[in-house]
Each structure stands twice: as C-alpha cells, then as structure tokens.
Design goal:
The complex is a heterodimer of chains A (404) and B (305). Chain A has 404 residues and is an alpha/beta fold. In chain A, 45% of the residues lie in helices and 12% in strands. Chain A has helices spanning 2-21, 39-49, 65-74, 89-94, 102-106, 118-121, 145-150, 159-169, 193-200, 215-229, 243-251, 265-272, 306-316, 319-329, 336-340, 347-356, 368-385, 391-402; strands spanning 24-30, 53-59, 81-84, 132-138, 140-144, 257-260, 276-279, 290-299, 360-361. In chain A, strand 1, helix 2 and strand 2 (53-59) form a beta-alpha-beta unit. The longest helix of chain A has 20 residues, at 2-21. In chain A, 46% of the residues are buried. By secondary structure, chain B is mainly alpha-helical. Chain B contains 13 helices and no strands. Chain B has helices spanning 2-49, 67-73, 76-107, 114-121, 123-126, 129-140, 146-153, 170-195, 199-207, 212-241, 244-249, 261-271, 275-304. The radius of gyration of chain B is 26 Å and the shape is flat. Chain B starts with a helix and ends with a helix. Classes of the chains: A alpha/beta (404), B mainly alpha (305).
C-alpha cells in the first residue's frame, strides 16, 4: 500500500514537472484519412525549434469533424488551432470563434512564399483574414484510359460526350445479363456535391431566389438524375455511396469514370498504374464548374496563447513543413518553393488540376452552406435519385435553404 | 450524577432518529448523482425545447414557447420518422422475441455441445453495435456483398440489389440486422425462465397424456410469460431509442428512408446544430415512450413488492 502511494506521488510529481517545463500548450485539431501521418514528426520538429511550446495534435474523424468542432466551441472546449474549410468560415465567424490574423500575416516572413491569390480566396466574409491556407485541390474527372481506348473513345469534353462515353462503357463483362462495369461512379452520399456541381451548377445556377429553379438548371438536374434512374449508367448503390465507395469501385474496375481530386491519385496509380488518367470535368450547358477544395488553418479566439498557436500554424504553412504535410495528405502545397520542386504526383494529375483552376469555385460563403453540404444536399439528392421527389423538387428544396 | 443519567436517557431517542435518517443518508449520494446526470439534462432538454437555440448563435436564445413543437407537427420529415419508428419497433421486437424463444427452447434441450451452443449464441449480443453495423453493411454491399452473391448464385436475384440504397428495402435491411443483434438477449432471458419451470409439472402432464405442444402451451408459456413481458418491454424501450446501427449503416438515408425519430432529433441537433428543435423532437419522443416506461416500472415495482 505504502509502495503504491509512493508511486502515485512520484507520478504526480513527474506530471507537475512536465507541465512546469512547457510554458504553453497548443491544442490542434486536424483530419487525415491517411493512416500513416507525419504530424507527430512535424510536432517534434516544431517543438525542437520552439522550446516552451507543446503541441497536442488530435486527428478527428472527418465524417464528424465539424459536428465535433462546433460542439466543442459552443461547449467552451475548443482547440487552440484547427484545420478548417472555407464553407465553415461564415458560421465560425458568426460564432465569434476565430481570431483575426491580419497583423500577424503582414509581419510574417513566410507571406511572400505563399502562392498568389490564396490569401485573398481565403479571406473572411467581413473582410478580415482568419484563414491561413495550408493545401488546396481541385476536383477533376478520373477516367480509365485503357477502357476508353478499347472503346475508341476520347475523354469527354462536354456533357454530351460524357453521357455517350458512360453509355458505351456500362457493360456486362461476364455474360450474366447484368452490367459489371458502370460508366460513372456517382457520389450520392455526403460530400457528393462536387459530383453534382459540374453537371448542374454549370447551367448558370446562382444560390439566390430563382437562381436554382430556373429552367436550364432544373433541366440539367433532370438530365443527371435520368442518367441514373432510366439509363442506369451509375452503380445501383450510388445514392448511398460516399468517398470510400466511389474510390474503391473505381480502383477495382467497377466504374470507368469518377470525380475526385489529386489527393487520391497515389492510390489510383497504385491500383491501376497507367490505366488511370485525368482530365478537367466536362463543359456542360455552356458553362463549367468544378469544386475548389481548400484546407486552411485558423487560430481560435478562445486560444490561451495565441502567439504560440499562430507560430504552429505558420510553421505548417511554410517551407519544408508544408511540403511534408501535403505529402501526407496527397494534396498540393501552398508555397511557391514547395510547388516548384513538387514531384509527388504524376504530371497528368497536376496538369488536370492546373487546367481546372480557371473554372474552380467554392460554395457560397454563407452560413447555410454548412447545412447544404451536411444534410440538405445529400437528403435531396438521394430522394431524387430514388424517385421519391422530382429533380425539380430537389432544386426547390435547395433554393428554399438559401433563399427562403 | 443526574447529568449522566439525563444523557443516558436522551441517547436512545437521538439514536432512533439517527436510525430513521440513516437510509436517506446512505441513499443520498446515489440520488444526487442520478439527479445530476439524469434529471438535470432532461430538464435542460425541456428548457431548450422551448427556445430557438442554434448552436452557432450561442448568444441568441429567444423564447419560442411551443413553437418548436408546432413546427414538428407541421414537418413532413417528423411524420415520416415517426412512422419509421413504429415499423422499427413493431417489427424488430416481436422478431427478436420469436427468434429468442425458439433459440431458448432449442438450447433447453439436451445435446452434447449445448454449453458451446449457449456461448456462441451470445456473440451477436456481445459485439459492439458499430462493428455489427459495419459488418452488415458489407454483407449488403451490392458490389462485394455476400448476400447478393448468394442470392444471385441461387437464382433468386437477377443481379445485385442495393439493399441499403433502395428506399423500399433499406429500413427492413437494418431491422434484420438489429433482430440478429438483439435476439440473444431474449434467448438468455427466456432460457433462464425455462430453467425455473419445475420438472415435475412436465412429468405430471406426460402421465396425463399431454402432447409436447400441449405441454408447451399449458405449462411452458404460462410459466415464462412474466419473463417474456418484462424482457419485451425493456427491449422495446431500448430498440426505440437505439440509433447507432442505423447511423453507421445509412446515416438515415437514402433521403429520409431510414430516419427514426431519435435519429432525426440527433441529426437536427448535432449536424444542423439546431438544439431547440432537436430537443423538442426528443421531448415529444420521450412523451410517446413514457407510456411504455410506466408499464415497465409498474411491473418491476410489483415484482419487488
């Protein structure tokens, strides 16, 4: 008994010594799909260069990342710094959860190395700067080069080409009368709006009264839903399919096209080698829209030591650390120096990304966008795909959210 | 001397008071904890349900009266979810009960590997819900799932069917999963009940010429009716509240096809951050369940008396 007391006391002392040594702690939240992530190494590097600061980095599962973040902020247990996306910014600003970093960025020697315009794209809704970019991607169209060549097809440049190719590539390969390969792997579950945008938002959609229910936009949505319901060019599981399902189906050769960004290219090449290639999403209805996928870092207004939190995020957004970070996420570095020596991705995927930049958009920077992404779009899309509501009713539901 | 006498006389009185207080003193920590972790949040939910409270506007919390409740009654998703909840409970609990009863009767027979069988039956009940949900998601998978493969090979299906992505089958597919998960509970409860039935009743019945069916109907069933009723009530409350398996398997989709009322309340509060409306849904559901809870409480208190 006495021995145990002694041990407990020793442990307590050690704990006290530990906290006494670190003058401040930065609690950092991030989300990585990649299981072997380098954040521990980055933390070690940062702590060695900044004695007195301890970083507690926590990997939060993506599916509930924002649920957790908002709840933690409201509950007074927010992290000091966090990885954040543009769509969440209006809501976070409305909550008063973010710390403006204009002055810190202005006096920061890493600023000159940031890619042009990235800070501007990430600017806050009230004109202040809250977000420091850390990586970016643009969604493009993955296609099976071998299947296209076999069928004598070119990668689609327009929606018409796309539908034609999807039709030609939806095939029964084992003779049981049922298709085993589908033309396009459509993501009807959470996060699928970047599959839907290129075909529907391209028709001149605006997130305002009448802007989503105009005739061309409704026609575009009807056309897309028809590809699944009547022409059966997407796998039957499409309404529930999420990231893992569409990537796995494409890698296993069950779909001939899908939409994602450069973050999955390493896995695609590993599974399919030269058989996979990429082009920008097709031009549809006279317009072109693809999703700009951003990821930034922010200091939260509740952080105890904001200087320490800023130092940590600035570290991640500059130099070698940013390159290491992006090697793990498989996305693109935000620094000019990092981009210049970038060798991680095959050229064809970098090209598809760069060619897509001119028509890459993010969703409107308003509070409703979080609900659009998380619940309204998936529920409406799934019901349209399964025929419970018409494509027009789906557009009305989305417009109702943005312009009630 | 007189003083010592006085104290001696008073002591038993004080002691009696103390004895009378003792049970309450001993109970108070448990009562206090229950009040804090059960009743306080319930009260808080009730208060929230009367307010317009959206988590990302923490400073604004206008009083809404019964506004959230009126909104729920006018919300088509609420009615869909309520209907699904009725199906969810109405099919799952009887199915679990029947399967559990059959299992218990089988396990009550004598065969040499009975101990092993009894242990194996527990497995679905012992597995974490998330594991079960992921496992069944794979079983139902239209591309790689074993269910479609078996049905296609048997010629019962033309091609793979998306069980969880079709609004006509998704709820029933999850109900099947939950039935599989929950039947061991009934099996174990009923088995315990069966073993308490005196053997001589069966012997007497056999001598009187009762068939096995008559023995089951006249002896077994009446003897375990109490156990069945208690287990079914308890399970009904659990199943009605359980959202973990649905959440992992479909997240409530496709569309609203697998929304039950507790899941809808959870999504409203946790994903849409609308805690006022979410709490109102939860309060409505609590009131609906309260009837069953009362019946259960009356049964258990009667058993104690």
């Amino acid at each position: 008994m006495r021995k145990m007391q002694g041990a407990a006391l020793a442990a307590l002392l050690a704990l006290a010594a530990g906290t006494a040594q670190a003058e401040s702690t930065v609690r950092f939240w991030y989300h990585f799909d990649n299981p072997d992530n380098p954040v521990a190494d980055l933390v070690a590097k940062f702590e060695a260069a900044n004695p007195g600061i301890t970083v507690e980095a926590e990997n939060i599962p993506w599916n509930s990342y924002y649920d957790n973040l908002y709840t933690a902020i409201a509950g007074g247990n927010a992290p000091d710094a966090a990885m954040v996306k543009l769509f969440a910014q209006p809501r976070l600003v409305e909550m008063g959860a973010l710390e403006p970093i204009d002055d810190r960025v202005a006096g920061w020697d890493g600023k000159a190395d940031l890619q042009d315009d990235l800070l501007k794209i990430n600017g806050g809704p009230d004109g202040k700067q809250y977000y420091l970019p850390v990586q970016y991607v643009v969604s493009y169209l993955y296609y099976r080069a071998d299947l296209f060549a076999e069928a004598g097809l070119q990668p689609p440049k327009t929606c018409e080409d796309f539908a034609k190719a999807a039709k030609a590539l939806t095939r029964d390969t084992n003779g049981d009368g049922q298709p085993d390969i589908w033309g396009f792997g459509f993501r009807g579950g959470k996060g699928g709006y970047d599959h839907w945008g290129p075909f529907v938002l391209s028709a001149g959609a605006k997130f305002e009264k009448g802007g989503l229910t105009s005739q061309p936009v409704v026609a575009a949505n009807t056309w897309l839903v028809d590809l699944y319901r009547n022409q059966k060019l997407f796998p039957p599981s499409a309404p529930n399919d999420g990231f893992q399902e569409i990537i796995a189906a494409f890698q296993q050769g069950r779909t001939a096209m899908t939409i994602h960004h450069i973050g999955s290219s390493a896995g695609m090449v590993k599974a399919l080698g030269d058989k996979v290639s990429a082009v920008p999403v097709p031009e549809c209805n006279g317009g072109r829209w693809t999703s700009y996928g951003d990821e930034s870092l922010a200091v939260l207004s509740s952080a105890e030591d904001k200087d320490a939190a800023w130092k940590w995020i600035a570290f991640l957004a500059s130099g070698d650390a940013n390159v290491e970070f992006n090697k793990a996420t498989g996305q693109l570095p935000v620094t000019k120096s990092g981009a210049a020596n970038w060798t991680l991705h095959e050229k064809r995927f970098v090209d598809a990304t760069v060619q897509s930049l001119p028509f890459a958009h993010s969703l409107p920077a308003v509070s409703q966008t979080a609900d659009f992404v998380n619940t309204v779009w998936p529920a409406a899309m799934q019901r349209a795909l399964t025929g419970e509501i018409t494509p027009e009713q789906m557009m009305q539901e989305i417009e109702q959210l943005y312009a009630p | 001397m007189s003083m010592t006498l006085a104290t001696a006389q008073q002591a038993p009185v004080r002691g009696k008071a103390r004895t009378r207080m003792l049970p309450y003193v001993l109970l108070s920590p448990a009562v206090l904890v229950t009040l804090l972790i059960v009743f306080l949040p319930m009260l808080q939910a009730l208060v929230l349900s009367l307010h317009d409270f959206v988590l990302f506007r923490p400073t604004q919390m206008p009083f809404a009266g019964l506004g959230n409740f009126a909104k729920a009654l006018a919300d088509p998703v609420f009615w869909t979810s309520l209907q699904h909840t009725a199906l969810w409970v109405g099919i799952t609990v009887p199915a679990q009960l029947l399967l559990g009863l059959v299992t218990a009767l089988l396990l009550n027979q004598r065969f040499w590997w009975r101990p092993l069988a009894r242990a194996v039956v527990i497995i679905p009940w012992a597995l974490p819900s998330v594991v079960i949900a992921l496992m069944w998601r794979w079983i139902y998978d239209p591309n790689a799932g074993v269910l479609n493969d078996v049905l296609v090979r048997l010629g019962m299906l033309q091609g793979a069917f998306p069980w969880l992505a079709d609004p006509g089958t998704s709820l029933y597919a999850i109900i099947l999963t939950l039935t599989w998960q929950g039947f061991p509970f009934f099996a174990v409860m009923i088995l315990a009940g069966l073993q308490a039935v005196p053997r001589d009743l069966y012997e007497a019945a056999a001598i009187d010429g009762a068939t096995p069916w008559q023995q089951f109907w006249r002896i077994t069933l009446p003897s375990i009716a109490g156990v069945i009723a208690t287990a079914a009530l308890l399970r009904l409350i659990w199943v009605a509240n359980s959202i973990d398996v649905i959440f992992v398997m479909t997240g409530g989709g496709p569309g609203y096809a697998t929304h039950t009322l507790p899941l809808y309340a959870f999504i409203k509060a946790r994903t849409n951050l609308d805690f006022g409306y979410g709490s109102a849904l939860a309060v409505i559901f609590t009131l609906l369940l309260a009837g069953f809870v009362l019946v259960y409480l009356r049964r258990t208190t009667r058993a104690i008396d």
